Amino acid sequence: MNDKITGLLQTMERFEIELQSGLQTKREELRIWIGQGRLRFANQTGAFQQSFQRRLPAVAPRAELLNLLTSPAIYSMIVPLLLLDITITLYQTICFPGYGIPKVSRAKYIIHDRHRLSYLSGLEKFNCYYCSYANGLMAYAREITGRTEQYFCPIKHAAGRPSPHPHYHRFFDYGDGEKYRKELKNIRKDLQEAGGAAGLLE
Hints:
The protein is mainly α. It is 62% helix and 4% strand. Strands 1-2 form a two-stranded antiparallel sheet.
């Protein structure tokens, strides 16, 4: 990896730190904090949120016909999602230890906290719970497959890839066979020792 790319990655890491700091400041402004592993609100914050709540009878008439028609297809996705959840977890549990690859923490990616927002109706909380699970699962699976790719085939695509996983930037350039043969062991060792380019050792 050349110095320019390394510098860009370091800049991205600094921006990520600044972003997390900004989000923490916003949480403090909203009087939200995490205590004993749970998201908590100041009493007056919860009361203020409840003033924006719509009860289910008030929400249902506003639901568009399209939403009602597509809901069976949307919620039927729970079957392949659960199957992915089970199989991808079994995969890393069985395979990662043998290659010395750090396992990914499922709890770090599948986060359920939106249902504690008092301004959401029961239906909205259910939808948020479902979306949190689906998107968290995709991120969880993406990290597992990203670590797998770094170990077995850390080569960039010739045409690039939109929104690559965090490990991708560390891969070898397409066609650089000399560097691939010379440094493959090092990039695998980096993954084993430090959780790879994303620094996500669990």
